[in-house]
Amino acid sequence: MTTGTIAVVLVAMLASFFMAWALGASSNSPPFAPAVGANAIPTMRAAFFIGVFAALGAIAQGGSISETVGTGLIDDVSISPLGAAAGLFTAALFIALGVSTGYPVPAAFATTGAMVGVGLALGGNPAWDTYQRIGTFWVSVPFVSATIAYTTASLLRNDSIPETVSVPFLGGFVGFVLANVDIAIFPGSTGQRTLARFVSVQVGMTPTLFGTIDVTMILTSFISGVVVFVVLRRSMERSVDAGIRQFLVGLGGVVAFSSGGSQVGLATGPLEPLFTTFDVPNIVLLVLGGVGILLGAWMGSPRLLQAVSREYSKLGVRRSIAALVPGFLIAQAAIALGIPISFNNIIISSVIGSGLVVGSGGVSGRKIAFTLSAWIVSLFGAGLLGYGIYTALTTLTGIK
């Protein structure tokens, strides 16, 4: 490896770390904003928890997204260190432009577009099957997120169902799902490392229903949900408001964990081919991204938390819960499928869906159209710019 190549590798790693820092400072704040807006937790403590939970999620769940961004967006070529640096620089440039101008630039769209552009400049071919899978998921997210948020808000506003039942029920549902999410601390192959499956393996000789349904996994998931339900129910029986605030903090932690897992691959993915070439374990790359997210959250999220929490305080506690539940579910679905996703896309759609229960999503049609336009411009603009930046760098440095 030449001196120039080593320098490019170091630049790419620094760019990846900075990208992770930026994600920690911006994209991971929404999960705790409702709790801050409801005065359930101080801002600085929320920033601390955001960093911890998002970093843990990045390390435990970020592998599938990182692999897709690094190797699944382009066929027939491997992203070079210079290509990784060019792609990360392009995505960071779009995100910085969005922050400075107020345009809603989603990191997932900018990074995906940039890496596709770089891959094409490298001489690769479009990975049409991957694009179709990602595009279908992205188009579905606003509708699914809004529907889940609407259903959740309707449940919380239903006068015939006491809040001491509806809120613990939602908590139990989250607990049930958590028992089935892939977490790297459990042994097994990717997609199979869940608490429910781990318990099933330990039990052994697990009976099945209808030939395929694992009874032990179902029981483990159900028990997990019941434990959360009972704990939250007892808390709300002592004080409804205190119980809801505790649920907001807990839900914020779960969503921040999911956010870290779904976002870290945007920073580490471009380096995936490089680390694979040198036989460096994937966990090392995820730790690099996790540390960047941790520091970004601690250093940059307090100010954004204050701004976002004011928006959530206008929504109210119950509508905030309805906006966060889809964030958890869709982020976990994206992680399971290895699809890079914009967390802001989920949250905006959820806020609109929860607002429809009271007759208005609180977002004008003009604002929705503006946001969609910004997403499309981010995707295709980053692709064109990534192609151009990589081509220019190759011409100037002679490195490919």
From TrEMBL:
GO terms for cellular component: membrane. It holds the Pfam family PHO4. One of its GO terms (molecular function) is phosphate transmembrane transporter activity. The keyword Transmembrane applies. It is found in: Membrane. One of its GO terms (biological process) is phosphate ion transmembrane transport. It is a multi-pass membrane protein. Potential transporter for phosphate. Belongs to the inorganic phosphate transporter (PiT) (TC 2.A.20) family. This is Phosphate transporter. It comes from Haladaptatus pallidirubidus.
